[in-house]
Amino acid sequence: MKKTGTEEFNPYRWYGFDVDGTIATNHKHGWEIEEPVKPMVDLMRRMHRAGCDVRIISGRLGDFRSDDEIPASVKRHIWEWCDRNLGFRPKLTGRKDSMMEALYDDRARQVVCNKGVTYEELAKELAKALELLVEDPGKGKREAETMLEKCRGLGLL
Ligand SMILES: [Mg+2]
User: How many Å lie between the centroid of ligand 1 and the Cα of residue 36?
Assistant: First the structure.
């Protein structure tokens, strides 16, 4: 594993970053790639500087697996944005494969591996438990204990 600040990355696998809504804002839903989303762009740069294989994976790239298959006009369009906002040209792909370690995407719903529960569901339940803890500490404590058990059962603690 490689470290960039507090994050660890597997140098033998690749990390996919979606474009619209992830590394660039997506208000107009058009062909133009919009403004950079600074935290994601910064993360992508840090990982790249640390030697991690960061790639763009986007619906814009259809079923194309590698840079070689992607039409020049599409590559140029994406890489011009990368030149201005990332300062490097990552590989481009339209597909996941077995060497992809992680996907950063605004539409993905991350699932706890092999458990059938999404982190989004868990975050909402944890937020409700915290809210209850503030409003009614007795009930909130019981709810927090229930959530702790659930998280242990999922292997998260
Ligand atoms: Mg998106």
Answer: 13
Ligand 1 centre distance from Cα of residue 132 (Å): 33
Please answer whether residues 92 and 78 qualify as being in contact, where contact means their C-beta atoms are separated by less than 8 angstroms: yes
The beta-strand segments (E) located in 5-155 are 7-9, 14-17, 53-57, 91-93, 100-104
Cα-to-centroid distance, 117 and ligand 1 (Å)? 22
Q: Tell me the C-alpha distance between 56 and 61, whole Å.
A: 9
Residue 34 Cα to ligand 1 midpoint, Å, equals 12
Answer whether 88's CB lies under 8 Å from 48's CB.
yes
Per-residue pLDDT of the chain (157 residues; tens, 9 = 90+): 777 766 788 989 999 999 999 999 999 988 899 999 999 999 999 999 999 999 999 988 887 888 888 889 999 999 999 999 999 999 999 999 999 999 999 999 999 999 999 999 999 999 999 999 999 999 999 999 999 999 999 999 9
Q: Which residues surround ligand 1, an ion (CB under 5 A)?
A: 18, 20-21, 106
Domains of the chain: which residue ranges? 2-104, 119-153
**Architecture of the domain whose range is 2-104:** 3-Layer(aba) Sandwich (3.40)
